Amino acid sequence: MAHTHAHTHTHTHAEHGHSHGLVDRSITRSRAGLRAVALSLLVLGLTAAAQAVVFLASGSVALLADLIHNAGDAATAIPLGLAFLLRSERAERGAGLAVVAAIFVSACVAGYESVDRLLHPQTPNALGALAVAGVLGFLGNLVAAQVRLRAGRRLDSPALIADGRHARADAWVSLGVVGSAAALALGLTAVDPLIGIAITALILRITWDAWSTIRHTHASEA
User: Fold this and answer.
1) Is the pLDDT of residue 220 over 50?
2) Which of 3, 36, 112, 220 gets the highest tally of CB atoms within 10 A of its CB?
3) Domains of the chain, start order
């Protein structure tokens, strides 16, 4: 009966989808899992940092939204790290709430900047660097996805596998920045803020998924 209960509990978390920092107990007990999450944090953090440099040079709000998105995904590793270091599920939930709040604020900033740029058009600079930044976002998410997927399969962690699949999907989102650079080169200045708004909508969905995960986890433990 205990085996059946454990299998059911794990299956329920797997069906819930992307964990955004609140992961199953097989990961919080595993140093290998923590190493995988830390490595993906490093990859996405470096990706967002490189994109931030290009944003300062180009002023593209599509890139701004994507780098905020990548930074937010990287930050979801923080609750897991705190929970491992403090060995506290309560600390994990508290840190998870902080991450949700940070992602939501980031979405608001990206959305405001995108709408403002749509109302007050400006042509971003450094279009070549902008395209490169989009490619970096694509590659960074692919690497993070592979790290999470391999560790998830090795540790039999549905949460890490879900995170890996999410990062793999995010890789294609980053290619929107490349599309923005191409549209700007053709003189289509409105495309840049529109892509920014689309990515903002994705960040808001991530915020909702993260909040739902925290609420679901809390209800399961109550």
Assistant:
1) yes
2) 36
3) 19-217 (1.20.1510)
> Pick the residue with more confidence: 29 or 140?
140
Lowest-confidence pick of 23-27, 89-93, 124-128:
23-27
Task: Count CB neighbours of 24 within 10 A.
Answer: 22
